[in-house]
Amino acid sequence: MSAELGFGLLAFVLVGLPAIRVVTCRDLVRGVLWLAVTLLGTAVLYALLRAPFLAGVQVLTYVGGVVTLMVFGVMVTRKHEASTVPVDGTNKVRGALAALGFFGVVAWAIFRTDLSSLLPVETPSTQDLALSLLDPYLLAFEVASVLLLAAIVSAVVLARRRDPVPGTAESVQRSAIQEGSAP
Amino acid sequence: MSLSVMLALVTLVAPLVAAFLSVVIPPLRHRGAPAAMLAIAGSLLATVAAGVLVTQDVAGQAIRATVPWMVLQGRGLGEIGVRLDAVSIPMLAVVCLVALAVQVYSVAYMDRETPRSYGRYFAYHALFLFSMNTLVLAPDLLQAFAGWELVGLVSYLLIGFHFDRPSAARAAVKAFWMTKLADMGFLFALLLLFTRTGAFSWDVALRPEVAEAAAALIFVAVMGKSAQFPLHVWLPDAMEGPTPVSALLHAATMVAAGVYLVVRADPLFAQAHWVQSGMLWVGTITAVFTALLGLVQNDIKRVLAYSTCSQLGFMVAALGAGSAFAGYFHLGTHAFFKALLFLGAGSVIHSVHSNFMTDMGGLGRKMPLTALTFSAGALSLAGVPPFAGFASKDAILLAVQGRAGWVPWALLLATAFLTAFYMGRVLVLTFLGKPSPAAAHAHESPAVMTGPLVALAVPTVAGGLLGPWLARGLGTELHLHLGLTPVLASLAALGGLGLSLALYLRGGEAPLAATLAALDRASLIDRTWAFGYRGVLLPLGSAVRWVDRYLVDGLMNGLGWGTLETGAAIRPIQTGRTRDYALAVVLGALALLVLGAWR
Amino acid sequence: MTLRALLLVATALFSIGIYGLLTRRQAVALLLSIEVMANAANLVFVAFARFGGAPGQPLVLFALAITVAEVAVGLALVLLLYRRHGDTLLELASEAKG
Q1: d(CA B36, CA A81)
Q2: Shortest CA gap A91–chain C (Å)
Q3: How confident is the model at residue A80, as a pLDDT?
Q4: Which end of chain C is less enclosed by CB atoms within 10 A, N or C?
Q5: Are residues C83 and A170, on separate chains, in Cβ contact within 8 Å?
Q6: What structural domains does chain A harbor?
């Protein structure tokens, strides 16, 4: 029992605490960095759970790719005056309530369920994973590739530069830049 | 399909096509003459077909060709088609012939109308012929009802033809709602028959009380349509319509449809003895009362209108006495001579530009053909032998005497005297004596108008010869013999005519004329109906309208308003704020989880 | 190392993500919260793969791919939002009003 508790606390420190920092800190750049910590913590847990390949993929894609993307996103969309925004007061209560409610319900379900029949088993090796991608999960694999292609195309289409609509902030910025008054 | 059935269908389809084309191709109607040609072509075809049918001689073998209507559970609710027998074929011939004559006559009579009006008139005429034939050829009471209602509609349209005249519009409405009220009887009779027998045929044996009830209900409708006392008041007012319309609808055919219906449904009425007694007395009272009123009218058309009521009373009395043949015979002869009289009156009216006999006089010399044919019609109506009217009236008197005793017979005989009397008055005031200033420039009508007059005069004079043939078709015999009744009837007719000629040529007035005129002006019956209309029907209508507008409509509007308000109240949920939507998603997921965890 | 503890930690992580989802005003912050939530879900899969042999690991791979796609498109949308309004506050994207 206490071993479980100890492990739980450890796991929480590994992923939970950084996550809390992600959702609470004002500076977005810091938030992104805390996210990186969370993701790394998750990678550690994967490793502990005999999923080494996944841990590696986690680090590569999430920490390497997604976090980098996020940093870019934050940088490009910076507001020029102030860079921190206060979190709204009333919504904190409601958000907290919803989150606690969610945790309460699921935790209650978890405690009610008899998990003793689930014992540690042999996890698939990297080779097994690779083979499963080509046989049972071939269709999903292909679909995932199409999905990624679609995402790439849509992201490019959405984000491409075109003449700004007059009256929006972008056109104001552009003309300001052209006139040489913007920072 | 046999030849007879095809011919019958021609009588239905030809006028229908004429009417249909006139309606859906407005240029035909607006230019006037094309619609007239269509209508006349239609009635000509119908008349020819009817004529051929007459020669087919279906005595004894009724032909019935129908298709089921509204098929439910393998069985039709009713039947649509034609029934050809010794009852429907003669009537068909009469209707088509008179309609043709009237339509040809109208070509000249209505020539003062605008082309649009002219076309509309003929379109209505075509519709009328189709409707009337539907009624005449009906194989059961359901189709008869359809034709009945249709002719009622066309009557309304034609009485109120000059709808810009308030009196005409009012007369049309009056005719329509009075007959419609009476038609409730027909409707209830249909319901009764259907619930008891599952069909609408008159050819069924019913329990006595059911037969009495059904016959009584149908007779109510007959009282309305055939202007029997006290529902006769719409007919004199219907004279607001153009004179050819009065001739066709309100003398020869439509008003006679009630009589025809009773003849048609004779197997039913034969089982209802109480109703027959009632019919006898209603007919007799109508005959006497309206004849008296006809004596004091100054409008020539109104005289003829009251005369029509009176003659219809004769027919109804005959039916009440149990002789469908006598009633039918008189229907036929009356159709010819009454139409003739009306068309003749129209000829005079067209020439003198007035309906009032005070504006006429001495027209015998100026309009000889009209005068001659009109006189023939008058003699036939009066019942002077050997004209057609004498034969049929004689048959009625014989039937009444044979079955119902002396009192109705005596009353009808007196009415025959009155009939001759008031027709004599008309003849004197219109054609004899000194012309009034208005009649100074009168002249004979064109051939298009006098032609039909002559054509109708033939059966008016010689129609009595067809009596035996008609009687055989209906299963009885007509005997012409020398007896009390024919002698007395002839005397009454001749005496009436003679006395009135003598009286009116000297410029006198009938005894009791002042009283009768006062009675006519008081129009108690008319006022009672008017009170019923204004005091009961209209308030009822207003109440129903209120319910419809505020309760029924209100409910619908309320539902609509409620929906809109609910929508407006719910709309703020769509705040547009992403976080609110996210919250909604989370809460929803939470709810699902709880639900799942509970199980 | 028990399954239950792991599941509870994952649930806690998810709840933290929910809190962030409902609370943050910046669009990018929202995406970060979503990342946290996705991460928690993946953790559950891997946990069950270890305890009970459910095919969790291949699923995680696919979940990863999907999440990456979502981040890409999401950031593109954030960019559009920024171009239109000069800021990435969520209130600015309120055109789906009733």
Answers
A1: 91
A2: 6
A3: 58
A4: C
A5: yes
A6: 1-84 (1.20.120.1200), 124-183 (no CATH)
Residue type, B570: I
With a pLDDT cut of 90, the percent of chain B lying above it is 47
Q: pLDDT-based confidence at B58, cuts 50/70/90?
A: low
**What token pair was written down for A95?**
């958000």
Q: Do C68 and A19 touch (CB under 8 A)?
A: no
Question: C47 lies in a domain?
Answer: yes
Domain that holds residue C78: 3-87
Q: Write b or e for each residue in B322-343: b if 16 or more Cβ atoms lie within 10 A of its Cβ, otherwise e.
A: bbbbbbbbbbbbbbbbbbbbbb
Output the pLDDT for position A151.
94
| Residues of B in Cβ contact (< 8 Å) with A107 | none
C94 touches chain B (CB under 8 A): yes
CB contact under 8 A, A48 and C75: no
Touching subunits for chain B (3+ Cβ pairs under 8 A): A, C
A25, A57, A103, A114: which to substitute to probe chain C, counting the most C Cβ within 10 Å? A103
pLDDT above 80: residue A168: no
Q: Do A94 and B589 touch (CB under 8 A)?
A: no
Break chain B down into helix, strand, coil percent, rounded to 5.
80, 5, 20
Q: Model-level pTM?
A: 0.68
Is C12 inside any structural domain?
yes
What is the total count of domains within chain C? 1
Instruction: Check which CATH number belongs to the domain holding C28 and give it.
Output: 1.10.287.3510
List the alpha helices (DSSP H) in chain A. Answer: 2-11, 17-24, 28-48, 52-57, 67-76, 89-112, 126-134, 138-159, 169-179
Residues 579-598 of B with CB under 8 A from C: 579, 582-583, 586
Task: Report if residue C92 sits inside a domain.
Answer: no
| Distance separating alpha carbons of residues B245 and B157, to the nearest angstrom | 10
> Are residues C94 and B575, on separate chains, in Cβ contact within 8 Å?
yes
pLDDT of residue A89 exceeding 70: no
Chosen for mutation from A93, A94, A97, A111 (greatest number of chain B CBs closer than 10 Å) is A94
Lowest mean pLDDT among B141-145, B222-226, B329-333, B435-439: B435-439
What is the CA angle B353-B359-B365, rounded to 5? 90
Cα separations (Å) of C40 from A42, A96, A100, A113?
9, 18, 16, 20
Chain centroid to CA B300: how far? 20
Say which of A91, A105, A109 has its CB closest to residue B579.
A91
Tokens of B571: 């709309």
DSSP labels, B215-233: HHHHHHHHHHHTT-TTGGG
